């Protein structure tokens, strides 16, 4: 049997308000570069009338042909996380309400969610509670694998949301917290790999019916220092390949 048949796929969904950096984080994680311009993501359609539905673009890179908008995209990347190979299927979604046509649909299929806000926008911080509630409602669960991601930590002088507030909210959700910068590639891999850890832990709990302990600084409500280093040394392997 080939190795690929043992590859576990994880469906990760990046959610949060408009302009918080969901696309920038996703592209930084998958393609290791920073997208400076803001081109709002649109779900399930083209911004301008176009004859080809975006669903025909399978696991594509971000649409960059001129005259077309940035549509919701699914990206795939193979990683080794804690000595286990994982194929990450990452869905970058639209934060702007009017472009969020597929919200309930992706919430049904996602196995884990990055709840992203920008430290420069209090409104975006408040919005992630709404996303979290909606996920729990769609899943019909009291808890589900999520991670609170405070992005744009390079913009310290524009900070509107304190680190403690983010950490407290994560504690309230019973999940991990991490500050990131898509621009400076701080904690980007760690955000995605920590979510995979949450999914594994959750699945184990579902199978055994018993809570699984998280230890050390990666435990729920804990904080990864935004100095670019994974404090646990258990982050993504650094040798990820795009599938
Ligand atoms: N300084 C800084 N700017 C960032 C960072 N992440 C994203 N940006 C910028 O913020 C703007 C919005 O980023 P996007 O990634 O397009 O935001 P989004 O969350 O995908 O927005 P929607 O698709 O509308 O939901 C862009 O100009 C990015 O370059 C970051 O970590 N630091
Ligand atoms: Mg986007």
Task: Give an overview in words.
- It comes from Russula earlei.
- This is Ras protein.
- α4 links the parallel β7 and β8.
- It is globular, with a radius of gyration of 17 Å.
- It is an alpha/beta fold and 243 residues long.
- The chain has helices at residues 22-31, 103-109, 122-139, 163-173, 188-208, and strands spanning 8-16, 41-42, 70-71, 73-81, 84-92, 112-118, 146-151, 176-179, 223-224, 241-242.
- The chain is built from five helices and ten strands; from the N terminus they run βαββββαβαβαβαββ.
- It has one domain (3-238): Rossmann fold, CATH 3.40.50.300.
- An eight-stranded mixed sheet has the order 9-8-7-6-1-5-4-10, sandwiched between helices. It has a two-stranded parallel ribbon with strand order 2-3.
- The structure holds guanosine-5'-triphosphate and magnesium ion (MG).
- Guanosine-5'-triphosphate (GTP) binds next to α1.
In the CATH classification, which architecture applies? 3-Layer(aba) Sandwich
Helices and strands: which structural class?
alpha/beta
Q: What global shape is seen?
A: globular
What is the CA–CA distance across the termini? 19 Å
Protein name: Ras protein
Organism: Russula earlei
């Amino acid at each position: 049997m080939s190795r690929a048949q043992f590859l576990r796929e994880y469906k990760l969904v990046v959610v949060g308000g408009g302009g918080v950096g969901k696309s920038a984080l996703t592209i930084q994680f998958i393609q290791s570069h920073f997208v400076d311009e803001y081109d709002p993501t649109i779900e399930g359609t083209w911004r301008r009338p176009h004859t080809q539905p975006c669903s025909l673009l399978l696991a594509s890179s971000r649409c960059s042909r001129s005259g077309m908008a940035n549509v919701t995209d699914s990206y795939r990347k193979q990683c080794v996380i804690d000595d286990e190979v994982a194929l990450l299927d990452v869905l970058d979604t639209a934060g702007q309400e009017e472009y969020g046509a597929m919200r309930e649909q992706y919430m049904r299929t996602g196995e884990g969610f990055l709840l992203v806000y920008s430290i420069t926008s209090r409104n975006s911080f408040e919005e992630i509670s709404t996303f979290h509630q909606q996920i729990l409602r769609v899943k019909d669960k009291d808890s589900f694998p999520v991670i609170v991601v405070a992005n744009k930590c390079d913009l310290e002088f524009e900070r509107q949301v304190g680190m403690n507030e983010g950490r407290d909210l994560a504690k309230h959700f019973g999940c991990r917290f991490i500050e990131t910068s898509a621009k400076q590639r701080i904690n980007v891999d760690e955000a995605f790999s920590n979510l995979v850890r949450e999914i594994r832990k959750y699945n184990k709990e579902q199978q055994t019916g018993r809570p699984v302990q998280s230890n050390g600084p990666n435990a729920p409500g804990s904080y990864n220092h935004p100095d670019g280093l994974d404090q646990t040394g258990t982050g993504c392997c650094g040798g990820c390949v795009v599938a």
